């Protein structure tokens, strides 16, 4: 039986882990390599790094974070944030990432999904989508959620899948940082369209939220940041809770 | 004697992870071995162990090998004449088969009898991505993996002709071979280098062959 994955996400800037509340206020929460190692030894099924650096120098810092992590951590590593080109993807994979997530660049030029998946295989191409509900529709937002692209999210999901995305990282901006739980309606609607795995993101605050995301949202993987970073819940606690409730996880 | 482990670089993605995992095992277990990544077929002659990782499409991978002049001959020599331990990972394992049906019909090395076929995708997501359990089918004296979860990413599987070539199998829609072995040739459909301690243990067993 394939297990539901639990993925801690580390927002990295200047080689340090930070996490924004609704993408704005940043709080320092430690060294990324140490954190990734800690999570990998404590039940994480994958590690996700989100590079929120702005400059090229900082991008190189991220590559060295990846290299150091790959020497110590033997579970899959995904990196995203500011990936713009085939070269960025290649650099990240060569530095030790297993998957690369593309967000704004795919909105600007959807063919990057096709080119990247043909070049590197769709298994390593994750399309990250930040959505916000406006009226009755979920709309795709780019650039860290700051710009409404006027693209309807469900049609974008369908398109990215067709172009060769291997996996979708779906973040609800309405829920991100709120601790109100995943947007289950969004996840359910997305799963009606998608044949590829979906990582649910945004809003998790309790163990029950992970359970709902897996059972009702039918997410294949569940991503969280602050609840893990500030030790509010441990990954093991989440997994034990899921297991008690008949959700198959790796313990 | 010092072991010389070569990870073959034929342009298929992330070899660093594979290398790091072998380095980790060698350091942890104080094994006298050196690990190198190489795209030079001649390095196979001095190697005690060869590892063939693989990502992406079967055709891209086999073409990558054929493109390197002399690589297939040296691989054949290493496996068939010298009969030294060879380890294929993911698509690297699939290359061991006779043929693949991924996007057309393509020839593999044919060292383990069988075909690469598409996993049936009715009601389940593709690719098969994530942690899944293996079940031992034929006990192997030297490769002794724990019957637990390993990390998989694939949409095609190895349909082995001979049941005795299957060390372990995994269920995703159907049961398929997750570890194969024929004489000195070994293959894992999952990624031992990404499967935490249990994965590193398989790498250790391979290095100790």
Account of the protein in words:
The complex is a heterodimer of chains A (251) and B (209). In chain A, strand 8 (137-142) and strand 9 form a beta hairpin. Chain A has helices at residues 32-41, 56-72, 86-95, 104-108, 111-120, 153-163, 184-193, 207-215, 226-229, 235-244, and strands spanning 5-13, 16-21, 25-28, 47-51, 77-80, 99-102, 125-134, 137-142, 147-152, 167-172, 198-201, 221-224. The relative contact order of chain A is 0.15. Chain A has a single domain (5-244), classed as TIM Barrel, CATH 3.20.20.70. The longest helix of chain A is centred in the N-terminal third of the chain and has 17 residues, at 56-72. Residues 20-28 of chain A have low confidence and may be disordered. In chain A, helix 8 (207-215) packs across helix 10 (235-244). An eight-stranded parallel beta barrel of chain A has the order 1-4-5-6-7-10-11-12, surrounded by seven helices. Chain A starts with a strand and ends in a 7-residue tail after the last helix. Chain A is of the alpha/beta class and 251 residues long. Chain A contains ten helices and twelve strands. Chain B has 209 residues and is α/β, with parallel strands linked by helices. Chain B is 24% helix and 33% strand. Chain B starts with a strand and ends with a helix. Chain B has one domain (3-207): Rossmann fold (3-Layer(aba) Sandwich), CATH 3.40.50.880. In chain B, helix 1 (15-28) packs across helix 5 (196-207). The interface between A and B is medium-sized, with 33 and 37 residues.
